[in-house]
Amino acid sequence: MVPARMVTNAFKKRRLGTGGSPSGTGEEVMSDIAGPLLQVVIRANPPDRLDKALARDVPEEASLSRSRLTKLLAEGAISRNGVPVSDAKARVAEGEVYQIVIGEAAEVETRPEDIPLTVIWEDQDLIVIDKPAGMVVHPAPGSYCGTLVNALLHHCGETLSGVGGERRPGIVHRIDKDTTGLLVVAKSDRAHHGLAVQFEKHTVNRRYLALVHGAPDANDPRLHGVRGTNFESGGILKITTQLARHKTDRQRQAVLFHGGRHAVTRVRVLESFGSLPVASLVECWLETGRTHQIRVHMAHAGHGLIGDQTYGGRRKLSPKALGEAAVAAAADFPRQALHAATLGFRHPVTGEDLSFESPLPGDFAGLLDMLRSAIPAGWPSKSLAK
Q1: Mean pLDDT over residues 94-123, rounded?
Q2: Helix, strand, or coil (residue 202)
Q3: What does residue 270 show for φ and ψ, rounded to 5 degrees?
Q4: How far is the C-alpha of 386 from the C-alpha of 372, rounded, in Å?
Q5: First and final C-alpha spacing in the chain
Q6: Which neighbouring-strand residues pair with 243?
Q7: How many CB atoms are closer than 10 A to CB 15?
Q8: What is d(CA 32, CA 11) in angstroms, rounded to the nearest whole number?
Q9: Buried b (16+ CB within 10 A) or exposed e, 51-66
């Protein structure tokens, strides 16, 4: 069997097929697509559709995701026997040979902006950022500028080798606008593909710190009645549900048990505050990474995040338990008290195991200090783990 290989070819002329070809009219055309040519041979027992088969058999060093391959099919950049193929669902057979033209990375419309960034790590393939509160990760309606992507386009400049056929940073995960902490972003296709696989397989270590109302407790009978929650050894709360967009408020996520996307969050109490207690510092880690996952899951468990205007409800801390100053500080906290503190993954190119930690930002650390120092006499804070 001929192995997949990289060759260079201008790919000047193609003949559009007839009959069983997934596309074509029988006429000759000149292709304006030029660039490196990747030849892929379909191996034994291929999947039942072309895009899946190509995603399986394309050389790993090409770093072509299935979504990128689908786009290349639509662009007419993939052919067999000189005939362009555009149907991603076309059936394939062992031994078929496909040619893929990979064009140069194109410039994107999103403009670079000179926005200061806290860079934790950077090489030619990826960059790790400590994101501040108030920064949106990716341009979207209402947030076309001032985003992390705008800042990265300026910061990285020509070092972006291209992701998905465009000269842009590859966003493989996000954190909310008002959540602080660590993100990894791909600068090359090979890094983007490798990181995406790790996130898909849930091998990335993501741990968050949050300040929440109350404290999850295995002895709390209320929690045992909340569907989707259970306690594992060590007092770790596991929350397992489905998540989907809210039916009436499209800016929110909702907990479901049928439909939606599978979501798992684990929670460990680090410190608790007040006599009941009424608030706690918790560590959350994700088995999946859905939009607003920690915020939605903690609210579902009855322990919404302090400062969360979307999911926290109108719950207030008790002045009797914490004192007026701490309660006022919590009430005035302008965002959800959530920080992406730890990020660990395997470098998608070098194979090196990387782990990063981010200190608490000033506003979060200040609120935590208020909660620690405002415990009424006779009710010291209870530290469960360090």
Answers
A1: 85
A2: coil
A3: -100, -45
A4: 14
A5: 57
A6: 255, 261
A7: 16
A8: 8
A9: bbbbbebbeeebbbbb
Residue 358: pLDDT over 80 = yes
Q: What is the C-alpha to C-alpha distance for residues 32 and 307, in angstroms, rounded to an integer?
A: 54
Cβ pair 255, 228 in contact under 8 A: yes
* Among 17-26, 265-274, 335-344, the least confident range: 17-26
Determine phi and psi for 273, rounding to 5 degrees: -130, 135
176 is catalytic: yes
CA distance 372 to 322: 9
The residue whose two tokens read 């990716």 is: 138
Higher pLDDT, 221 or 32: 221
Other beta carbons within 10 angstroms of residue 358's beta carbon come to 20
With 0-12 / 13-18 / 19 or more C-beta atoms within 10 angstroms meaning exposed / middle / buried, residue 278 is: buried
Annotated catalytic residue within 176, 178, 189, 308: 176
| CA dist., res. 152 & res. 266, Å (int) | 31
- Spatial separation of the C-alpha atoms in residues 189 and 192, rounded to whole Å: 5
Distance (Å, whole) CA 135 – CA 229: 32
